[in-house]
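Good morning C.,

I know you're traveling, so I'll keep this short. The sequence:
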Amino acid sequence: MRSRIVPLVVLVSASCALSGFRSARADTFYVDPDFSSLSIAIYDHSTSTLLTSAQSSGSDTTTLGGTFCATIASGAITFNSGNISFDDQGTDMQPAIGGGGDSAGDSMNPYPPSPGSDPASYGLVLSVYDPENPASLVLAGELAVRNALAGISSDSAITISGGSSFDASQINMVFNSGTTLDYNINNGSDGSVFLNGTTAIDGTPGANTLTDGGIGTFGGVTAINIPVYVDVNVTTGGLDVDVVLSGSIGATNAAPGAPVPEPGTFVLAAMALVGCLPVAVRRMRKSR
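The tokens, ready to paste straight into the viewer:
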């Protein structure tokens, strides 16, 4: 059975100056697209059956940008707020915004029109099979996630262990307002049943399930790596589904274009992964 989780994080606050204590330091962290991407998959909520595949090569994965605010003090980190953006694919995804054209709905043209296409963060193909007859396709169609934004926050300070690792499962997550799922679905046999439209997939709070967060500092620049596995439960096109995001978010407190001490952002991001190394080694030893 697939592990169960819940959504991505909270809206970015107007200010990052949420220090709380004089010794605390609240910083804006800039998400680095070279080290930040999330893949998407949609499962049947009741059976955990995978329902989607990529619409085109790589369209189920996208890179990330944006910022989040975090306070680091006394061997702990607090995630205050965030506004993480999801990049669009290189080509337009089906269906178009709103789910494509209206259903024809008459005897001369009973089948759905072309779904059309528009820029989107993700493009997926939906395939739902009859559980009693796996060869029978019950529903088929296209899905597109658009205007995707997410935030990150923690309810309290998270301890930094060994100076380089923290429990990323203490980070709360939710899709920000405006994130949508457009759908264009017909029945798999002859297409006569046609559903299209848009479902909001924002606002459902939850927690990340992965623990191995990493943090490192070089030349006064701090890098953070957040492993991500979150599950958003939504109802779309009459289907009760789980939208699962997995991947990682890497960021530094050096603004884009600002001078970065050698060896630069790449090594800074790699340093944040050092926090994951002790855990990975322990797991490898246990598996032998």
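Safe travels,
E.
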